[in-house]
Design brief:
CATH topology of the largest domain: TIM Barrel
CATH superfamily of the largest domain: Glycoside hydrolase, family 3, N-terminal domain
Strand content: 25-35%
Helix content: 10-25%
Radius of gyration: 27 Å
Number of helices: 18
Oligomer: single chain
């Protein structure tokens, strides 16, 4: 049955989700429910249940740092195979927004500051997912690159920058065949992206996108505007603005029946692609083999190593020789407690306990030398109650969570976490829209005495008590900011004196009048341990070498909240300074999902950017430090000498929540201003040396390519990334136009080609409304980074 033959009410019902993670089924059409899952870092539990685990992937910025489409595609294929095993049909990934400020709370999800790099790798991710017959939904269309007031802010960007920069990764994903797209929360030029007719016309009419455009969750504020603009599917379900309301709009003639039919046909087309129609098999690309679970885990370790970027290695301190050392000091809070991801709705619970850097280094180096550890900072960041010694009142490990409706307990669970979120429905309880009370009870036995900090908050009025004493009260969030407070996991905190080994009972009650989302967050922080810095300094003095792992905590990068600056915490800055003075053989490993200010970099001989590299992080890091593998990545973002060097420095929302974009940003801005970066875009060292030979421009497939010989002049196998930047006539900066990576053995050479597509020579003609070739002298710069150019060619058009 064609959509047009289907009654309006029944057809419109298919344009909204059934639940927070599924669409409606329709037996008359042979249509089953499609299961959609969030997934930039792994398969998010549809009910945000910590008992549902997943492979934890390298974050977007780590995948961007690989500069390797094959690695990115392999990671995506591994995720898609897991999705098939678990019955998911589509994944909301990759995140193709650009890290234009470096301070967005979700920078860690983004692939790069550069549209071409993000587009090439984003397309590889799309191909890797869909080769397994699992739909990719790149997000968030478009300019959702700041978290401050993200549901209301307006990105004010001119047509040229929009086309050449912010839409480019999405265009490349669509050209790669993406089956879906997610529209962003924010406004573009004052119009919500979910209701932006001109934006969606570019996607559907100009690019020929034949997939489904879905709303970000609860992004719709009306029915007619989004429907007319081309928004196909409202999520999450059940319907709020689509469904019955859309059918009524069609009946009133406000929305053409053809627009409704188009939305339904797009959903049915998606269903056919993922095997969601009776008798139709999932579309798996020829030659794309199902990835076994063990192979997927190995892929994640290799991808982690491929993402590490060595930006400094004086006197070839790295790799370290385990057999050549008496003692290795592993120092830093992130060595024993690394950060794998940011705090978002897309948080992943790894399926297995991943080896920390400390554990992995003890395993790799321990048999050959003494490995000592000191965290180096006094404080421990807040954590879930489940991270400490807690039981239920019945002495079961975990916390007791009771769901109450009308004063009666509807469900009792024993949970390992103490942060909970539900969209639309609570399994076993009912809709989140009904009034409810949550009661969490945990018996905590502190391992150390002192003043502990407890915090609680949620989607309703919250009260926290310890041993019957009320410590904190938090009112319900304002109606317009429930999602924001939930995303930020805001809590009210209080301190309580505890004695080591003496259990206390923590009780938190949250009362809600109901709403589209319900949440409860409870955490605690143990007291500080004085003297950590001096113990770390002494450990550094006594060691032959130091690996100092610093960086982010889970809360550093958070959805709905941006960072104020790019520096490390003060305690970590003091630690780097003290350890660098104590031992001249110090390697600083930065475990962060963003570009980190590094004024200390020149005081240490080696610096390794290791990002949020997924569950293979510790194992890959130990192997790279020991020289079993090399750090294969290149910088996907620029680290300026200071935040003030950024084009976006001081850029804020005005009184109307508009953010006027300053262009260009990142490495292009530094080039125009004549400012050097601390760590340049595209920079990165390996464990060998290279020579780039004389380059030439040659015709290739109707366009052009840069061809040149590359020689590994070092003593071991390695990978080089040849980068090409082009400056068009009349421009003062060059932009990335192409790149390719090559692996060669010591002494080996090979000829490589870097393809330059037709867009290399084109710019958006805002007046004419199209792409046009810029005639004149184009500078084609060949090198190893945006600042390390070894040869410049001239191309006349």
């Amino acid at each position: 049955m064609h959509a047009s033959a289907y009654p309006p009410l029944e057809a419109a019902s298919l344009t909204a989700g059934k639940t927070g993670w599924s669409t409606l089924d329709e037996p008359a059409l042979g249509l089953r429910s499609l299961f959609l899952v969030d997934g930039p870092l792994g398969l998010v539990s549809p009910t945000f249940d910590e008992r549902e685990t997943s492979l934890l992937l390298p974050s977007g910025i780590a995948l961007g740092a690989t500069w390797d489409p094959e690695v990115v595609g392999a990671v995506a294929a591994a995720q898609a195979s897991e999705a098939r095993r678990r019955g998911f049909d589509a994944i909301y990934a990759p995140n193709l927004n650009l890290a234009r400020t470096g301070l967005s709370g979700r920078t860690f999800e983004m692939l790069s500051e550069d549209p071409l790099l993000a587009g090439v790798l984003g397309a590889a991710f799309v191909t890797g997912l869909q080769g397994q017959g699992v739909a990719a939904f790149p997000k968030h269309l478009v300019c959702n690159d700041t978290e401050t007031a993200r549901q209301r802010m307006s990105a004010e960007v001119d047509d040229t920058a929009l086309r050449e920069v912010y839409l480019r990764p999405f265009e490349m994903a669509v050209r790669a065949g993406a089956w879906g797209l997610m529209a962003a929360y924010n406004r573009l030029g004052g119009t919500p992206c979910t209701a932006h007719a001109e934006l969606l016309a570019i996607v559907k009419e100009e690019w020929g996108f034949d997939g489904v455009v879905v709303s970000d969750y609860f992004a719709l504020k009306e029915t007619v505007g989004p429907a007319l603009a081309g928004l196909d599917l409202e999520m999450p379900g059940p319907a709020i603005h689509y469904g019955v309301r859309l059918a009524e709009a069609v009946e009133r003639g406000e929305v053409p029946r053809a627009r409704l039919d188009d939305a339904v046909e797009r959903l049915l087309r998606l269903a056919r692609r993922v095997g969601g129609i009776e008798g139709v098999h999932r579309q798996v690309a020829a030659g794309d083999a199902y990835v076994p679970h063990e192979q997927a885990q190995e892929t994640l370790v290799r991808a982690a190593a491929a993402s590490f970027v060595m930006v400094r290695n004086e006197d070839t301190l790295l790799p370290l020789d385990p057999a050549g050392m008496r003692r290795l000091a592993v120092i830093g809070p992130n060595a024993g407690r690394p950060c794998y991801q940011g705090a978002t709705f897309g948080r992943i619970r790894p399926e297995q306990v991943a080896a920390t850097p400390l554990q992995a280094m003890r395993e790799r180096f321990g048999p050959l030398c003494d490995v000592v550890y000191e965290p180096g900072v006094d404080t421990v960041p807040p954590d879930s109650l489940g991270a400490f010694r807690v039981t239920t009142p019945d002495k079961e490990p975990g916390v007791r969570l009771e769901h109450l409706r009308d004063g009666h307990v509807a469900l009792t669970e024993v949970r390992a976490d103490s942060a909970f979120i539900w969209f639309g429905d609570i399994p076993g309880v009912g809709p989140t829209t009904e009034p409810m009370t949550l009661r969490l009870t945990a018996v905590l036995t502190p391992e150390v005495g002192g003043r502990w900090t407890f915090g609680a908050g949620g989607s309703g009025a919250t009260v926290l008590s310890v041993d019957g004493v009320v410590l904190a009260r938090r009112p319900a969030p304002a109606a317009g900011d429930v999602m924001g407070q939930v995303a930020r996991a805001e809590t009210t905190t209080a301190q309580w004196e505890l004695r080591a080994g003496e259990p206390v009972t923590v009780v938190v009650e949250m009362v809600s009048t109901g709403g589209p989302v319900q949440a409860l967050t409870v955490g605690c922080t143990p007291p500080a341990t004085p003297g950590a810095l001096e113990r770390a300094r002494q450990a550094a003095v006594s060691a032959d070498a130091v690996v100092l792992v610093v960086g982010d905590e889970l809360e550093t990068s958070r959805e709905s909240k941006d960072l104020e600056h790019s520096a490390l915490p003060e305690a970590q800055l003091r630690l780097v300074e003290a350890v660098a003075r104590a031992n001249p053989r110090t390697v600083v490993v930065v475990n962060a999902g963003r570009p980190v200010d590094a004024p200390w970099a020149d005081s240490v001989p080696a610096v390794l950017q290791s990002w949020f590299a997924g569950q293979g992080y510790g194992t890959a890091l130990a192997g790279v430090l020991a020289g079993d593998d090399e750090p294969g990545g290149r910088m996907p973002v620029t680290v300026p000498v200071c935040d003030a060097d950024r084009a976006t420095h001081g850029e804020t929302l005005d009184a109307d929540l508009r953010r006027v974009y300053r262009e260009p940003t990142g490495y292009r801005h530094l080039s125009r201003s004549g400012t050097k970066a601390r760590f340049a875009f595209g920079a990165g060292l390996g464990y060998t040396t290279w020579r780039l030979g004389t380059a030439s421009l040659v015709p290739s497939g109707g366009c052009w390519a840069v061809r040149l010989p590359v020689t590994n002049t070092g003593e071991r196998r390695g990978r080089e990334v040849v980068q090409v930047y082009v400056r068009a006539p009349g421009e003062t900066d060059a932009r990335l136009a192409g790149f390719t990576g090559i692996r060669l053995d010591a002494g080996q050479d090979a000829e490589v080609e870097v393809e330059l597509d037709e867009r290399t020579w084109q710019r958006w003609d805002a007046a004419g409304g199209g792409w046009s070739v810029i005639e004149g002298r184009h500078e084609v710069r060949v090198g190893r980074s945006a600042e390390d150019i070894v040869q410049t060619l001239v191309h006349e058009l």
